[in-house]
Design goal:
The chain is mainly beta. It has no helices and ten strands. The strands form two sheets. Strands 2-10-9-4-5-6 form a six-stranded mixed beta sheet, with no helix packed on it. It starts with a strand and ends with a strand.
Amino acid sequence: QVQLLESGGGLVQPGGSLRLSCAASTSIFRIYTMGWYRQAPGKQRDLVASITSGSSTNYADSVKGRFTISRDNAKNTVYLQMNSLKPDDTAVYYCNTKPLFGYSWGQGTQVTVSS
């Protein structure tokens, strides 16, 4: 069974940093563009960053210049470095392919930005 496991979330003060990790249970994800998505309470799940198999990246305007996505294909892992965090970044963060190909979502990792 293919699984995606997110980790690294937590409570951080505004202006702080966190590094999220997404570990895939299979190397099949190496061929995919992977994305980090987030869902705040009462809102839809949105894509915030993506990275191709060749490590080209794209970011939502709301996180551009603050977040950095990267991947280590040898470890089947995708990362999201988040700096200068704002309260509006509070959400559950998930990883998955982009576009979605029907792989199950993981449990996500909660990021809370609050003083």
